[in-house]
């Protein structure tokens, strides 16, 4: 059995990124800052209206796996692509980053998933995701040597959108726990939380999940509260270890009655927020699986998130290992 | 007949861009700074060795067309993609930039061309191009309404690599001249010049081409001289209007005995030189087709080239029209 630091499970998506103004979002009924699920027809319509774009591998948990590997951690990924050009690009990029990726590609339709991401002048990203081949991820894609070999198995809440991935996750979590490993998830998106609130709470309260990543709006959506403090108190009870990211306010870690405040990275120009949460999780989990103190884990998360929002796209363009060393976190 | 400012003809290529160190180029026998032509087998081999990449539409003349459109000029493009995902991306991006692009895609193999571009820490790009569908561009792809309707028909020297594109170019040039239009070309690459030196000189001396874009090493290759001054003297005789770009030394325009020196744009960080020459041509031709003085045309070229090397990839990510206004060149 190979040992891994982090196994990530998520939708395998190629991002198609273009800039637009705020009016474009309004005119096209795109919820700003959210992940909007779209079908094939709307994907075609929006692509026809989209400006010149660049393509990069993406997908929340895939970005996290790439980030962990860039820090020098040993990462693996489960996710479903099709046997097509975008699938080739996806598989190339994640393997070239050093992530173990062996999920069998689909040999027929639907095609590899893509997300059209519109970046407004304020740097905020609004995603429009066609799930494509991701709908075929299922229990047969769980590789037990990896769930048992990984210190942390991490999955995205977005996996509740395709029909059978949640079954895969429950199996993977059972295998991980049977091997005395930990399981983590991200709540992914406030609207995703709204779709699956009860199931996410059940995952947390049943301790199917040990560690939960959330941003402020996802946590507020989870508990249907406008109060950050009320949300945090509830979160504290429901997670063994909870992490709440707050953009320019940094992040907060809670474990029982313990609370740790983490400062954000000071940044220059905010270019594109795509991947901020994913890379925070990468930095945190890299530190966590290396046995670093929680404050260091949070600082590594802030570093990776702060760097990724100063570039276009969610995959690190420079070695995070070197960046961590430069920031005294190596 | 629709009027166009610039019709560009070139290889329609999707760029796959990744960073590497200089050792990688040496180990893989890639000529630094050059366009290396590769076959399908070598494309697979190099892609297997390439790090995580991003994809963007590219191709020299296609980049120039996109640049002209970004300045607000009316541009058209001839180039051959296949009916596949990368071809869809290429067609989308150039049309979304506002360029008229109606070349029929191939409905069978080979696939859309791609160039694996390795960017070293000094910002220099080294290209590895698999021509794919580009080999099928031929006289049947010349749209006479566009050759006659465009103030300048501009093509890349790279078109001498595929077998039948040169026939298309001669037909397009004849049609353009018959309509009292001008014809321009870029020498593209010093090794390309070496492959087709006599043919390029014939194009110039027969006045099949009126305006020639070159960089310093291409001009030296053309005349097989190490002397910039000797090359420039010969160039002056062979071109009606000659433009020689010299990276951080700016550029030189020659027309008969007239010589105009153009300053480069002062830049911050050099990120990636991909597209520098293509965007210089875009700025120059935009000014030229709007009837601006040659010094302004050169300044617009310097502006566009200087901006493109401060980002990854050869397609402008911001409106060059706005940038020109900000720099007092609008």
Approximate shape of chain A = globular
Distance between the termini of chain A: 28 Å
Output the CATH homologous superfamily of chain A.
Ribokinase
Radius of gyration of CA atoms of chain A, rounded to a whole number: 18 Å
The overall strand count of chain A is 14
Strand order of the largest sheet of chain A: 6-5-1-9-10-11-12-13-14
Number of helices of chain A: 13
Helix-strand pattern of chain A: EEHEHEHEHEEEHEHEHHEHHEEEHHH
- Largest beta sheet of chain A, briefly? 9 strands, mixed
Which regions of chain A contain 5 or more consecutive residues with pLDDT less than 50?
A: none
Biggest interface pair, counts:
A-B, 26 and 27 residues
- CATH topology of chain A, anyone? UDP-N-acetylmuramoyl-L-alanine:D-glutamate ligase
- Beta-strand content bin of chain A: 15-25%
- Reading off the top of the CATH hierarchy, the class of chain A is best stated as Alpha Beta
Reported CATH architecture of chain A: 3-Layer(aba) Sandwich
Q: Kindly name the structural category of chain A.
A: alpha/beta
Count of individual domains of chain A:
1
Give the rounded overall mean pLDDT of chain A: 97
Question: Considering DSSP H and I runs of 4 or more, what fraction of the residues of chain A is helical?
Answer: 25-40%
Oligomer: homodimer
Describe the structure in your own words.
The structure is a homodimer of 330-residue chains. With 330 residues, the first copy, chain A, is of the alpha/beta class. Chain A has a single domain (4-9, 62-103, 135-326), classed as Ribokinase (UDP-N-acetylmuramoyl-L-alanine:D-glutamate ligase, 3-Layer(aba) Sandwich). In chain A, 39% of the residues lie in helices and 22% in strands. Chain A is built from 13 helices and 14 strands. Chain A has helices at residues 22-27, 40-49, 60-70, 85-96, 144-149, 165-178, 190-195, 197-205, 216-223, 228-238, 276-289, 294-308, 320-326, and strands spanning 4-9, 13-19, 35-37, 54-57, 75-78, 100-101, 113-119, 125-130, 150-156, 182-186, 211-215, 241-245, 251-255, 258-262. In chain A, the strands form two sheets. A nine-stranded mixed β-sheet of chain A has the order 6-5-1-9-10-11-12-13-14, sandwiched between helices. In chain A, strands 3-8-7-2-4 form a five-stranded mixed β-sheet. In chain A, α3 crosses α11 and α11 packs antiparallel against α12. Chain A is globular, with a radius of gyration of 18 Å. Chain A starts with a strand and ends with a helix. The model of chain A has no long low-confidence stretch (mean pLDDT 97). The interface between A and B is medium-sized, with 26 and 27 residues.
């Amino acid at each position: 059995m190979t040992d891994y630091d982090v196994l990530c499970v998520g939708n395998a998506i190629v991002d198609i990124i273009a800039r637009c103004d705020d009016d474009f979002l309004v005119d096209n009924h795109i919820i700003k800052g959210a992940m909007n699920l779209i079908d094939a027809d709307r994907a075609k319509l929006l692509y026809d209206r989209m400006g010149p774009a660049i393509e990069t591998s993406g997908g929340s948990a895939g970005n996290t796996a790439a980030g962990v590997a860039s820090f020098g951690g040993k990462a693996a990924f489960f996710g479903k692509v099709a046997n097509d050009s975008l699938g080739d690009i996806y598989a190339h990029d994640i393997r070239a980053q050093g992530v173990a990726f062996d999920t069998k590609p689909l040999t027929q339709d639907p095609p590899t998933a893509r997300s059209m991401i519109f970046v407004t002048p304020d740097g905020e990203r609004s995603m429009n995701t066609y799930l494509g081949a991701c709908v075929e991820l299922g229990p047969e894609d769980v590789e037990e040597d990896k769930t048992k070999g990984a210190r942390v198995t991490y999955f995205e809440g977005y996996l509740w959108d395709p029909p059978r991935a949640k079954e895969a996750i429950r199996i993977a979590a059972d295998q991980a726990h049977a091997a005395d490993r930990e399981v983590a998830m991200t709540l992914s998106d406030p609207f995703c939380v709204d779709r699956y609130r009860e199931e996410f709470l059940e995952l947390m309260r049943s301790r199917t999940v040990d560690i939960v990543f959330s941003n402020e709006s996802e946590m507020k959506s989870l508990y249907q509260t406008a109060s950050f403090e009320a949300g945090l108190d509830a979160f504290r009870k429901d997670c063994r270890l909870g992490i709440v990211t707050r953009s320019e306010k940094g992040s907060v870690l809670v474990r029982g009655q313990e609370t740790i405040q983490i400062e954000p990275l000071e940044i220059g120009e905010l270019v594109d927020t795509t991947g901020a949460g994913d890379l925070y999780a990468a930095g945190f989990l890299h530190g966590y699986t290396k046995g670093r103190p929680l404050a260091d884990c949070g600082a590594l998360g802030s570093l990776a998130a702060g760097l990724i929002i100063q570039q276009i796209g969610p995959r690190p363009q420079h070695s995070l290992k070197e960046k961590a060393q430069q920031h005294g976190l190596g």
